[in-house]
Protein 1
Amino acid sequence: MKETILVTGGTGFIGSHTTVELQNAGYEVVIADNLSNSSADVIDGIEKITGIRPAFEKVDLRDFDATEALFRKYPRIRGIIHFAASKAVGESVEKPLLYYRNNIISLVNLLELMPKYEVKGIIFSSSCTVYGQPDVLPVTEESPIKKAESPYGNTKQINEEIIQDTVKSGSPIKSIILRYFNPIGSHPTAIIGEMPNGVPQNLIPYLTQTAIGIRECLSVFGDDYDTPDGSCIRDYIYVVDLAKAHVSAMTRIMEDQIEEPVEIYNIGTGRGTSVLELINAFEKATGVRLNYKIVGRRAGDIEKVWGNVDKANQKLGWRADTPLEEVLATAWRWQVALRERGVM
Ligand code: UFG
């Protein structure tokens, strides 16, 4: 058995898929989650897929003492993957202090505790949102950071700086910052997947809920952008491929292959797909016809962004290689599974 890894937010969408891949790779996992936006049932799902039940602690990482108790209880933790965060862009505009408290205090607590409990490294979930609308595409890790459009985006930028400053100050820790593009899809078993709260804000859950009849019609936000078909372009990355990037990054830290104390990687496919192309691919992959209409632009949307992922391909020895149609089929299978289980 390899090292023990603390996965914060491990019952969430990306955290649960990453726990599966960590366990498949031989790591022991402790999940910490306050269940504010997820369910403990996910632990059963992870066990069903991998045959291993990860340790689970219901902990609020804003609580320093409770967080320290976690490291005392599991002295073998050597790495952290920090997913736990609030992530709704619109909500963050309405409740900025909630976002600053949730997303920043928890990271500060973890960074303070790491040296004392001999935790070697932390992987931080950042986002391509830090680039805003890049001037040059595909966007590389060296592209300038643009002023954040929302408090949510700002917490990602601030947290990246907190990590950099902490390491610069001489803290004996290593960090890999992963800037995700748009994570989509679900585990091929349809046992775990994305569970949006209420009306989905993101494209894929809205699309699959429309396809199954929970929503009447998908609104495509704008067809007058400066793109080939006029709809926005994103780099959609399969959540299982994304999960595997975390395993590669953690192994890089654990096996002392990391070359700088803080490394930053774009994690995407390197390809851009428009909203209309995505709808076509979904219909082709599933044979399901989607009811959609073009409406006006959504405030704050980036026109087009996709990543240059050469650095991750080379240094992490990782590649997102699941074809888009296959990914969309997993999203659909998950939506159907939720219906069969009577969840929605
Ligand atoms: N879209 C629609 N209709 C919808 C929902 C989305 O047309 O009902 C379009 C959007 O306009 C955008 C694309 O689908 O062009 C993707 O939108 P998402 O909301 O799924 O994703 P975003 O790229 O806007 O946002 C994502 C994450 C954020 C993160 C941001 C930048 O959800 O957390 O990427 O990293 F901040």
Note: The domain at 4-184+237-267 is CATH 3.40.50.720 (Rossmann fold).
Protein 2
Amino acid sequence: MNPIFQARDLSVTFRVGTGSRRKLLSAVNRVTFDVERGECLAIVGESGCGKTTLGRTLIGLYEPGEGELLFDGRSTANLDAADRQMVRRRVQMVFQDPHASLNPRMKVGEIIAEPLRLHGIGTRDERQRRVADLLEHVGLPAEAAQRFPHAFSGGQRQRIGIARALALSPDVIVADEPVSALDVSVQAQVVNLLKELRARLGLTLIFIAHDLAVVRYVATRIAVMYLGRIVEIGRTEDVFGNPQHPYTQALLSAVPFPDPDAEEARQRIILKGDIPNPIDPPPGCRFASRCRYAFDECQRADPAMTRLPDHQQVACHLVAAPLAGQGVP
Ligand code: SF4
């Protein structure tokens, strides 16, 4: 294996408040994972779990506070300006809101060509030809280049955002909730486009989402985040078929089944209790205040990641050392 990203005990911290009220908010806390070339790794969790911060750290918008992030085998902390520029070319982002992320005063052709222009790539004619190719890649006509973003639907605007992300022929696309702002009827089309582009262009896709039904369809592996930590990571079929962490089980219990009989029998796990404050997280398991299996050890000790035989990894005391009668069902 030759991962494109390797995160080792990676933390991202923000200062919040002013003066004597200044505190540290730990948005991502000691996460360790690899992103393999060509895979689609989904990062899932509720709002505020740190998934967007993690995605933005991968594309270089945030600096890791502690730990290490390697891109293509090299630590991103030691890159000079030229190498940072190279990483910025090779890792591109698709944003959540296609309305806000496209400049309404620029024509679509200028929007898509902008990354090429900023990196000084190609002549004006070459960039125009590239724009036409990119529009074709994302299923839009070449004439779209002459129009402004407002002339397009939400789904079409997201296609334009994807074309812009592809302009520099990146190795990795980080897609942050790329379909959550779209009508349900067009979500599948955009997800299908990302899947197809990943296969056709050999892209690595990091898909940040809260909608697990979408994730199941697109991801090859899933990392589940809770309060800045990855609590479970594994192949999609393993995480969906045999979720080990109580938080993953609760998230998956909210996903409807297409089969009416299975849907009728679905038992929803309702999470009670409050999410702890990320400025002052509890000393033990961060999920303990909402976990139906929590026991004394969970309040005291932070569970380490345990690797299961099929490579699924879980941070839960019950998985590390199942107690009689307390195994995660
Ligand atoms: Fe629940 Fe304890 Fe496992 Fe945390 S470590 S998920 S509180 S059982």
Note: The pocket of iron/sulfur cluster is lined by residues 245-246, 285, 287-288, 291, 293-294, 298, 303, 316-318 (CB under 6 Å).
